[in-house]
Amino acid sequence: GALSRLGAGDVVLVTGLAGAGRSRLLREAALPAARAGALVLRVDFTGADHDELGALAPLLTRLGVALSGGDARIRRARILVEAGRRLLVAAAGQPLVIAVDNAQAAPPAAREVLAALARTLRGQERARARLWIAWRDEEGARDPSWLELAGPDEGSRLALELVAEAEGGCAPPSPPLRPVLEVLALVARPL
After folding, report:
1. How many CB atoms lie within 10 A of CB 41?
2. Secondary structure of 121-172 in the HEC alphabet?
3. What is the pLDDT of residues 56-71, one digit of tens each?
4. How far is CA 120 from the centre of its chain?
5. For the chain, what percentages of helix, strand and coil (3-state, to nearest 5) are there?
6. The pairing of beta strand 157-159 with beta strand 11-16
7. What stretches of the chain adopt beta strand conformation (E)?
8. Which residues fall within 8 angstroms of residue 109, CB to CB, at 6 or more apart?
9. What distance in Å separates the CA atoms of residue 124 and residue 129, rounded to the nearest whole number?
10. How do residues 151-171 score in pLDDT, each as one tens digit?
11. Closest Cα to residue 41, out of 15, 60, 66?
């Protein structure tokens, strides 16, 4: 069915309409990862401030990425490169899960950084890091960063309506627990 073709990956983009259960899925998926010893870092762009990086700035600071200094263009390029490198360094010491909610509300610069992190993880065979991103689908919301986060042929995209279809029904406002647990088996694989 739909779940078997999605596969498990280091980067998963969870999409769905408002109320489909994206936030719940991120919370539920983080529990077994944390129990297994992973450091789970959460970023939520709900009511995100209007800073260039929004809610992503504290995460980048925690990873050791310098967010200030120098010309704006050079700083932005440095952040894009440094974020991926620092993510891999942090994950080498302890498995790491970054769970990003409401990414559709992220400012453009934050979306660029998320896309850079996704590219970094897709380029690693044995990264001990996972990037799970929840994005509320809206009409016309598929910008270039959405496409990068979904991966080649949208292979990293988990559409919650597909989970409901696999159960033989329509997408309910909140997904039943069984599909969520099936999804957890896909995205919460051992680090």
Report:
1. 16
2. HHCCCCCCEEEEEEEECCCCCCCHHHHHHHCHHHCCEEEHHHHHHHCCCCCC
3. 999 999 999 999 887 8
4. 13
5. 50, 15, 35
6. parallel
7. 11-16, 39-44, 96-101, 129-136, 157-159
8. 52, 53, 76
9. 10
10. 665 556 666 654 444 444 444
11. 60
Q: Could you give the count of Cα atoms lying within 13 Å of 146 in the half-sphere of its Cβ? A: 19
End-to-end distance of the chain based on CA atoms, in angstroms? 25
Residue type, 68: S
pTM: 0.77
Which structure tokens are listed for 15?
């999409």
Q: Which residues pair with 12 in a beta bridge?
A: 132
Q: Distance between CA atoms of 29 and 189, rounded to whole angstroms?
A: 10
| Cα-Cα-Cα-Cα dihedral sign, residues 133, 134, 137, 141 | negative
30 burial class (0-12, 13-18, 19+ CB within 10 angstroms)?
A: buried
Q: Which amino acid is at 183?
A: V
Q: Torsion angle, CA of 87/89/93/96, rounded to 10 degrees?
A: 10
